Predict the structure of GNAT family N-acetyltransferase.
Amino acid sequence: MTERFSPAGQAREKEQIMKLEKIPGGYALYKEKTIIGTCRARPAEQGADITALTIVPEWRRKGYGSYLLKEVLRSLGGYDKESATVFTAPLPADAGELAFWAKFGFAAEGSGLCRRRTPDLTAVKLVQDFLAARLADPRLCIDATCGNGGDTAFLCRLVGEEGRVLGFDIQPEAIASTRQNLARKGLAAELHCDSHANLLQYVQPGTVDAVMFNFGWLPGADHGVFSHAQSSIPALEAALEALRPGGVLSAILYSGKVIGSDEKTEILQWMRSRPLKQCTALVCDFANWADTAPLPCFLLKK
């Protein structure tokens, strides 16, 4: 039988019949039930030391070496956008092999190859770093838009065992996802399937260290369900009232083809109209990103 592949079809075919399996000292690449390649790797704190990568001679020059290395890097966190990673490998003997490793970000360094990756700065990471640096010994924090619980977990770690974290989301699936996320990480928070506009029913005004908002839609869920300014602005007003002097409100705003720009525009207008005696408003624009990129904002309560 004659095999015919388009580049995209060939990639799909590989994914369907290939399997990466962990073995002592590294990984094996199976084509159906036959090992056609191996990668020897010693995991390190931020990546791994790849000591050898071999493809069985009859399967070379067919893209399987690239597939194997990519899957090993993926398995060891090499494509994690939020983590700094360092991978090393032996220096190849010829220019062809050096070009192969270069496709995956490896470059000559000292007596070997090294692949260093600095995590991308995301809107979420910027907000979390700002709060961690700004707040000294926080004890009461709110995640006003739980989603899948990423910010909730961050706040739980920020306040420590003596602190208190409340999480709100109007979607039951978001509360369930957050609860599972926290349980996996050994963390706990008070989760409420309620509108964030009602947060003052759960805390006293002037007592909260930080309130986080991440607007838009629930990641992994129906993108047709997303936040709107009509409910978001009352929630922001309630959050600002809940904050203590020196507390921080953070909000990541979104726009795009699905959700439009109405919520983003109206919230920005609301923030810019806050009296200076009440708070300082910061809008952190990523100047060389697309206009629809997530927009981190902060209100610093006075």
About this structure: The CA atoms of residues 169 and 175 lie 6 Å apart.
